[in-house]
């Protein structure tokens, strides 16, 4: 009684495996829930078309079509790809926020904020650390077509 359920991730690794796989800054942010300094991330001002994936496990997280200029100093998205992120209550630093993590590996991405008045379809701002992301340039629609073809092949197996 009172035991906390332990989540097993599809792309999970041990701490030594994560340390070997990630650079020190990626480990600090993805595995230890750190935050990069505002305005320093390489994707804050990137508005090229493409897909953002998890820097820890390469799981697709966001399409560039959902990225917007928030002025907060971190990449901001109004929605993630379906099933790509998990949400958790974060009570650190005397605040109540919603942390977002990669569904596949549990890597810390950042936080999601609602009702800030940005004119977005979801009224959300996913404030994501650039270090938590990798960017692959290309057509979002092409990604959707490739994803659908891959899922179709998997269903045939």
From TrEMBL:
GO biological process annotation, one example: protein repair
InterPro entries the UniProt entry points to: Met_Sox_Rdtase_MsrB, Met_Sox_Rdtase_MsrB_dom, Mss4-like_sf
Gene Ontology MF terms in the entry: metal ion binding; peptide-methionine (R)-S-oxide reductase activity
Listed cofactors: Zn(2+)
Pfam families: SelR
Domain MsrB: 15-138
EC number: 1.8.4.12
Positions of transmembrane segments: none
PANTHER family in the record: PEPTIDE METHIONINE SULFOXIDE REDUCTASE 2
Protein family according to the UniProt entry: Belongs to the MsrB Met sulfoxide reductase family.
Protein's UniProt name: Peptide-methionine (R)-S-oxide reductase
